[in-house]
């Protein structure tokens, strides 16, 4: 990765894009990075496109990921891959829900956290920071379910070729 790590999370309204970016930003902050975050909601209440940029590093000046500079593009909705692909750098990592085995999640609403688990396998942020951030942003009654979803995504991504 570069001195500033650029992540774009994309999907549709209601998929937990903003929650996922909040968790990522907090995990990076807990790991000691300077963090900036921005989001674009569009028609998110009606299932419209939603993106959120998270940038972290030693010192970050702008919250927006410049076009063609995303180190990682994490996409929760397949229809959003091609729309957002121009945001990725040529050697960037594309993470899609294909990494999560079908019907592996106990609750489909935890897909965003499972995808953060997948993301965690390509970033240098300790798992303890990720889980602390998940717990800080979700109700206690959801911790175990989301811990399991995170672990599922982490295992699934680590076992992918490439």
TrEMBL record:
- The residue ranges of the Pyruvate/ketoisovalerate oxidoreductase catalytic domain are 13-109
Q: Which Pfam families match?
A: POR
Alphabetically, the GO molecular function entries are: oxidoreductase activity, acting on the aldehyde or oxo group of donors
| Alphabetized UniProt keyword annotations | Oxidoreductase
Residue ranges of the TM segments: none
**What is the protein named?**
2-oxoacid:ferredoxin oxidoreductase, gamma subunit
- Source organism per entry reads Thiorhodovibrio frisius
């Amino acid at each position: 990765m570069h001195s500033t790590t650029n992540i774009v999370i994309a999907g549709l309204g209601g998929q937990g894009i903003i929650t996922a970016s909040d968790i990522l930003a907090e995990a990076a902050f807990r790991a000691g990075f300077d963090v900036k975050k921005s989001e674009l909601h569009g028609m998110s209440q009606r299932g419209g496109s939603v993106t959120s940029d998270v940038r972290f590093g030693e010192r970050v000046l702008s919250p927006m990921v410049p076009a063609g500079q995303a180190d990682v593009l994490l996409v929760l909705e397949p229809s959003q891959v091609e729309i957002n692909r121009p945001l990725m750098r040529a050697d960037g990592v594309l993470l899609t829900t294909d990494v999560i085995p079908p019907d592996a999640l106990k609750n489909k609403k935890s897909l965003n956290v499972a995808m953060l688990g997948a993301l965690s396998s390509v970033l240098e942020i300790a798992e303890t920071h990720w889980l602390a951030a998940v717990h800080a942003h979700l109700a206690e009654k959801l911790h175990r379910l989301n811990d399991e979803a995170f672990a599922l995504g982490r295992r699934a991504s680590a076992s992918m070729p490439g």
